[in-house]
């Protein structure tokens, strides 16, 4: 009887362990990116493993979604209209917390993995970005401005969505490449990874990347932020001096 009870207990523990949700162990190829003169961008490799809490291979099939977001910024989107043959600024909308960078990589199209409600909760895709407009705005107008902002950022390479970018090996290891353009803003970037199974997010993990200026660029940026008046005055003096020197050189030719 003792042997039978022990066998039943072992079987129960095994079944309970198999039913538990997995955990994600994420990693990034670079946790710090230094922006120097001639910076042309960076290619990040986001990789990791899907494991049980005990560190073994997780049973079942999983999809992976990776989201990399830059620091949120307030931004004003202006709509241009042609008046008397001239393009002028017309209506505008200010968004309180638009991510300065947004990249999504997934193993399959989002619509095939989760429903709209789940995609909206985790902001999986351009359509579900929560941009938080300031003030009262008509829903149709808000959607138009939101789509305009996303399209502008996408053409600048700052918003990306690739639904076949995550490779999964043996349902254990995953990896995805995300390109950061040279125009990325400095700050702390958040990389959030989701494991999806049967339409449900069963595990998530967060890691971070710091983008910061180094060298002369860092000195200029620090002075611009901390000593704005003197930095502006210095910039004006340099501009006037360069203009005067250029004028003298052309006068001698």
Short structural description:
The protein is of the alpha+beta class and 253 residues long. 32% of the residues lie in helices and 39% in strands.
Describe this structure in words.
By secondary structure, the chain is an alpha+beta fold. The chain folds into two domains: 13-213, Macroglobulin (MG2) domain (Immunoglobulin-like, Sandwich), CATH 2.60.40; 215-253, no CATH class. Helix content is 32%, strand content 39%. The strands form three sheets. A six-stranded mixed β-sheet has the order 2-12-11-4-7-8.
Number of helices: 6
C-alpha end-to-end distance: 108 Å
The helix/strand series, from N terminus to C terminus, equals: HEEEEEEEHHHEEEEEHH
What CATH first level of the largest domain would be assigned?
A: Mainly Beta
Strand order in space, largest sheet: 2-12-11-4-7-8
Number of strands: 12
Major beta-sheet overview: 6 strands, mixed
Strand content: 35-45%
Briefly note the CATH topology name of the largest domain. Answer: Immunoglobulin-like
